[in-house]
UniProtKB/TrEMBL annotation:
GO terms for molecular function: dolichyldiphosphatase activity. It comes from Patellaria atrata CBS 101060. PANTHER family: DOLICHYLDIPHOSPHATASE 1, PALMITOYL-PROTEIN THIOESTERASE/DOLICHYLDIPHOSPHATASE 1. This is Dolichyldiphosphatase. The chain crosses the membrane at residues 22-46, 90-109, 129-148, 160-181. SUPFAM superfamilies: Acid phosphatase/Vanadium-dependent haloperoxidase (SSF48317). It catalyses: a di-trans,poly-cis-dolichyl diphosphate + H2O = a di-trans,poly-cis-dolichyl phosphate + phosphate + H(+). Keywords: Endoplasmic reticulum, Hydrolase, Membrane, Transmembrane, Transmembrane helix. Belongs to the dolichyldiphosphatase family. Pathway: Protein modification; protein glycosylation. It is a multi-pass membrane protein. Its EC number is 3.6.1.43.
Length: 230
């Protein structure tokens, strides 16, 4: 009995021109969705923030939507591309657009700094200008990833633009859904359930800069330790 031919697991298999530096950079940009998934997993595990969990659920739902659209439209990839699978819409473009726009919406419209009354340390927080610059940086990064799909001939311009449109549309819809869940009290109700308590799910990132809050606690401990040594 002859051995079955080996298949290629193409999740991270990228074709690029090794003699073209831009093509090489685009190959690295193609890994951004996988890297963002690792970022999601790390943040969810380390912070247990409901806002990050919501964003990840939206991100995965957006991926399912892309899977369905590709099999509904059934448009082939560019002829120069040797890969397999449908190309309309671009999953990379849809993924990064959802992420960058969701992050921007959170930074500009949902994140509201609230000073922590439990500490006497004066600290800085992200201003509206800084949050705007972070949003622009995120959108720029998404644009580079989307453009790289055309440069590597994995997608046509139309496929990338439709992917961007699908990701942006779903990001706006999902932000509206999570806003309604908050205003209707469902988020607060969910955080009081035993499941949320067992997994220690919380909702601090809307009002706190988690890095700054951790830094405050560290400085308070250093200050207390210094007093004990005197």
């Amino acid at each position: 009995m002859e051995d079955a031919p080996l298949a290629s697991f193409s999740l991270t298999h990228i074709h690029y021109n090794p003699h073209d530096r831009i093509s090489y950079l685009c190959a690295w940009l193609a890994l951004v969705p996988q890297e963002l998934c690792m970022v999601y997993a790390t943040l969810i595990w380390s912070t247990r923030e409901i806002e990050i969990i919501f964003m990840f659920i939206g991100q995965m739902t957006c991926e399912v939507l892309n899977w369905g659209l590709k099999r509904w439209i059934k448009e082939e990839r560019p002829p120069q591309m040797n890969g397999k699978g449908y190309g309309m819409p671009s999953s990379h473009a849809q993924f990064v657009t959802f992420f960058s726009l969701s992050l921007s919406l959170f930074l500009l419209f949902r994140h509201k700094h609230s000073p922590n009354p439990s500490t006497s340390i004066e600290h800085s927080h992200l201003t509206l200008l800084q949050r705007g610059l972070l949003s622009l940086l995120s959108l720029l990064g998404a644009s580079l990833v989307a453009a790289s799909r055309m440069y590597l001939n994995y997608h046509t311009r139309k496929q990338v633009l439709v992917g961007v449109g699908a990701g942006a549309t779903f990001a706006l819809l999902w932000f509206g859904v999570t806003t309604w869940l908050r205003s209707a009290g469902w988020v607060q109700w969910g955080l009081e359930t035993w499941v949320a308590r067992v997994f220690r799910v919380r909702d601090l990132v809307v009002e706190e800069d988690l890095v700054e809050a951790g830094w405050q606690r560290w400085m308070e401990r250093r200050k207390l330790r210094f007093r004990k040594q005197q």
